[in-house]
Amino acid sequence: xxxxxxxxxxxxxxxxSTFPQAAPSRAPEHAVYAVVNAVSDAPTQxxxxxxxxxxxxxxxxxxxxxxxxxxxxxxxxxxxxxDALRLSKAPRExxxxxxxxxxxxxAALTMRQAEELLATLxxxxxxxxxxxxxxxxxxxxxxxxxxxxxxxxxxxxxEEGEWRRVKACAACRDVVTVGLRCANRECxxxxxxxxxxGFFRGMRVRKCACGTEWTGRDFVGERAARGYVPAGRxxxxxxxxxSRTLMGDDEEDEDE
Length: 256
Description:
The protein is of the alpha+beta class. The protein has helices at residues 2-9, 42-46, 52-68, 81-86, 98-101, 111-123, 139-153, 196-200, 236-253, and strands at 13-18, 32-37, 79-80, 127-129, 134-137, 179-181, 190-191, 219-220. A 3-stranded antiparallel beta sheet has the order 3-5-4. A 3-stranded antiparallel beta sheet has the order 7-6-8, with no helix packed on it. Strands 1-2 form a two-stranded antiparallel sheet.
């Protein structure tokens, strides 16, 4: 692996590794390796395979995942399939005047084109689609786009400790899009599910670095979505418990 990495570096590529966000552990058999473009801008990384209109759609999709559906109150970091398809319609710029007449605005995709593109992005490993119908950025996408995502969605002028949209796991330092968060909404501490036990090992009381009790019930990912019940939970008690946890946050969110 090191030999391949060294050989690829001169061509602007690297071999990187990570773990799926919902992996059961960080055991070697769960690791994902990818040859990625070392250049951190999305157009350079995707332009060889996709049209400009498709890239514009991908940008809207990333905006939905890392901006629209990623707030201090609820870090879903995923978009439902129905919402993803609605993004196929290109936004109007300036009411469609000069920009449209000069051909500057990206063209809309048809629903069918959007469906086909989403399927292709999943097949290529850029996106993942869950059983609940959420699209999120897959391991390959996080490996290759990490620099772009941090540059695009994190404020370069933010003061230390200020809330960030793209966060690294406090244990493994990889980006977190599925996992657990500190209950303090101003705190940036996030952990993958498979990093929690190791991070708190040896501690009598689980507390975040900011001093807040670690509840284990504050989620990042699909479980942070309004009314979402994790797949596989079929009992009335489990469903009710999950709903209460989520809807308890909803009551506070109404004013935000």
